[in-house]
Write a structure and sequence with these properties.
This protein has one helix and five strands. It has 105 residues and is mainly beta. The protein has a domain of 48 residues: SH3 type barrels, CATH 2.30.30.140. Strands 3-2-1-4-5 form a five-stranded antiparallel beta sheet, with no helix packed on it.
């Protein structure tokens, strides 16, 4: 006797993975296109949001709740500056969208 589980049915083999009746959250079984749309594009070897490398960026403007808009050299991104004392115009070191140091002070 075999153990119950997924297997062929009258309509053919069972489809692996979650049901596609409702969209899943990005990173939780979502279609690849949905996940790709949720993750910013990386440039070369450096990506603030997904790299193992910290990068230098310049603060363009400060926002509420310890956030800032920064110039990455490839465009603008929003990062947290909650761990540092930084001002508009400062160069900061950012890893995983979190400022970890102010450069040159």
């Amino acid at each position: 006797m075999t153990a119950p589980g997924p297997g062929p049915s009258a309509s053919g083999p069972a489809a692996p993975g979650p049901s596609t009746s409702a969209p899943a959250a990005p990173g939780r079984g979502a279609p690849a296109a949905a996940v790709a749309a949720a993750v910013p594009e990386c440039y070369g070897d450096i990506c603030i949001t997904c790299s193992d490398t910290a990068v230098e960026v310049t603060i363009v403007r400060l926002l509420a709740d310890g956030l800032a808009v920064v110039n990455t050299g490839q465009g603008e991104e929003e990062v947290s500056v909650a761990l540092v004392q930084a001002q508009v115009g400062d160069t900061i070191l950012v890893h995983a969208k979190e400022a970890i140091a102010v450069v040159g002070r």
